[in-house]
Amino acid sequence: MAGEKAEIRRILVADDDSVIRHVLTFNLEAEGFEVHALENGAGVYPAMRELRPDLLILDIMMPERDGLSILSEIRDDAAIADTPVVLLTAKATDAEVWAGWQAGADYYITKPFELDEILNFVQYLSAEHR
To answer: Which residue of 8, 29, 63, 124 is surrounded by the most CB atoms within 10 Å?
Structure first.
């Protein structure tokens, strides 16, 4: 049906921490998702345009380009603007969290994080889009 959102199947993870990328990729793939991972901010926007993921898990503090500027560019691009974005970051002050929400985050998770929180949100999005 036109206008319906697709089920969450493809996830893009962008985080400069290799352990976090590995943990997220391993666990999301174990749940049946196709996962693509990037280690810096420079490739995120081009990957969003090319891969058209159903969800982006995005760190804020990354080399080459920060997550908030990437999120702003995504929200300004009509082709990908409605892609759900989870900010996964060490930035945890009220002002930093508020800046993430203002930038257009759909969910904000601070590091260190509980893996179940991310998996539960992804499952919630998947159920919502069915």
So the answer is: 8
Instruction: Report how far residue 124's alpha carbon sits from residue 27's, in angstroms, rounded to the nearest whole number.
Output: 16
Residues 35-82 have pLDDT tens digits of 999 999 999 999 999 999 999 999 999 999 999 999 999 999 999 999
Nearest to 107 by CA among 116, 115, 97: 97
pLDDT of res. 2: 39
Quote the pLDDT of residue 5.
54
Instruction: Write down the pTM of the prediction.
Output: 0.91
CB 81 within 8 A of CB 113: no
Closest Cα partner for 101 from 113, 85, 114?
85
Both tokens of 84, joined, read 């759900």
- Characterize 30-45 residue by residue with b for buried, 16 or more Cβ atoms within 10 angstroms of its Cβ, and e for exposed: eeebebebbbebebbb
Does the domain at 10-128 match CATH 3.30.70.360? Answer given as: no
Domain range list for the chain: 10-128
